[in-house]
Amino acid sequence: MAEEICAELGRPLGEAKLTRFSDGEIHYQILENVRGADVFIIQPTSHPVNDNLVELLIMIDAFKRASAGRITAVLSYYGYARQDRKDKPRVPISSKLVADLIEAAGASRVLTVDLHAGQIQGFFNIPVDHLFAAPVLLEYVSKLKIETVVSPDAGGVERARAFAKRLGASLAILDKRRREANVAEVLHIIGEVGGRDILIVDDMFDTCGTLLKTIEALKIEGAGKVYASATHPVLSGSAVDFIRQVEVEEVIVTNTIALDGAKCIPKIRVLSVAPLLGEAIRSIHEETSVSKLFV
Questions:
Q1: pTM summary value
Q2: Among all residues, which ones are annotated catalytic?
Q3: What own/partner pairs with CB < 8 Å and gap ≥ 24 does 126-132 have?
């Protein structure tokens, strides 16, 4: 991701060294002068979440102590974003804690893509530029003949409606109940899907249990070709096996999270958000408007 963004900007990647001591502690050293520099740290807090988060905090601290002018944390994926409220007694709001840690480490600004919950922006007391990967995904899916866009839950209706409007398609919603974390049960579909080519739109694919049940429900209702798109390919547990087995034409995601070789299967299409992030970084550095990217 960092190399792609640098290629977009025509700038070299900064020189630094990150190693681990024998006990697992992280050691980081900047290998060039950054005094007064405008620094952008590209570090999505994806799997392994805790390691990547601590690395990010240590890097921010190193740049702060090296007298960098401004430090922007570029988090193409924001870990712990799903723990954004107290939905049960005696549980933490972990995404707020992560925001506090990033601020305490010394970040001046945060640039991120498709937060699971928009209110996370308000957890920070520093500027947050929240980009959307929709233009990248829409450029690709507009080449498909999508007739209905499906939101797998009520929370994603706004996102699905935006896709449907841009594609000139109708909208359908799945009513589901989540019995426990990562376990969902589809109840019924609101909208016409029979005989239509479908695009399921979500912000992330994690275990893909919801995706599996959604596709099964759509096929029972007589849906035609089914495609699925999301910004963040978390793909934990048996997700890739589910994608191999399920009746889906293609799962379209972005590279906000790097996929290892085992997850790069023919059914998964990965699009790059590097041009989007590169343009945002250029605008932040040049102090020009970033709002043109918020579409």
A1: 0.91
A2: 176
A3: 129/280, 129/284, 129/290, 130/294, 131/273, 131/276, 131/277, 131/280, 131/293, 131/294, 132/294, 132/295
